């Protein structure tokens, strides 16, 4: 056997072996949680390169250490999975860098991190003022994660005390002019409904590039012709406006009438419609 | 427009809003949204009923505008 054939065969073997071992170790290696896992990956690659490199030594000189290097991390991650103390020893634990807005200099020293590096890490999390940080820690893979002070955290509907409808994933019901029956069935509609909705907006199925239905049954359409203006679905906002107008009318009736009973009735009705608006408004105006 | 006519207009638009709410309740697959719509439709319906009564009274007071 000429030497070049030998090299090719050995390279193929090492390539296949590396593929199999990489699959065995799994996704965890990809995320490289710790520095150790990172070097294990490099070591396996290095051993694979021995196989085609040293033609005189038998194949198992390369394959065996690779196998050991694959099995060991799997075994260790099993141990780490089962016991917390083993986990702390094997994977290390996060170190707190800032607590209650105060930088912990001792912990910085233990991680051998300078003030500049700390600031850099914070900036990479879009934090430019240390004063904004409530809590920061360095994970075992070296990234710094930051918890902002509550007044610096982004505004969410919950913080504002707003009631918002739950978000449900929309379904694409028309793609490239073809109706997706499965998606339609998933969201609980059928072709007849879709036809009716399209007729309402005056569009033929063939002209639709993409149509999406959200959980409330609103249909959003994009057509091939980009200059064509399609009116957005209006029933929900219009209903909201109708309710608001009725509420205002009821209040003005209450002011206008001299009949005490009617006044009370109007006032109470206005209040109830206001309740309805508060309740259903977020659903109608999204 | 007399008050009776104005009340009738409001009644009509409330009825349409109520019907819309019911159709939204039917159209949505989301349980929470369905419940909110249904409840809103019920409350609106009760207001519609009250207004209907009031319109009856107004028509008795001003028979000229009956049927508008």
From TrEMBL, chain A:
Residues in YetF C-terminal domain copies: 82-214
Chief subcellular location: membrane
Task: Tell me where on the tree of life, at the top rank, the source sits.
Answer: Bacteria
- Whether Cell membrane counts among this entry's keywords is yes
Record's keyword annotation contains Transmembrane: yes
Topology class, membrane: Multi-pass membrane protein
- Regions crossing the membrane: 6-26, 33-51, 63-81
Keyword terms, alphabetized: Cell membrane, Membrane, Transmembrane, Transmembrane helix
* Cellular component, GO, one term: plasma membrane
Q: Where in the cell is it found?
A: Cell membrane
Known InterPro entries for this protein? DUF1657, DUF421, UPF0702_alpha/beta_dom_sf
Q: Which family does it belong to?
A: Belongs to the UPF0702 family.
Protein's name in the database: Uncharacterized membrane protein YcaP (DUF421 family)
Species name: Alicyclobacillus sacchari
From TrEMBL, chain B:
This chain belongs to which protein, by name? Uncharacterized protein DUF1657
InterPro entries named in the record: DUF1657 (IPR012452)
Q: Which Pfam families match?
A: DUF1657
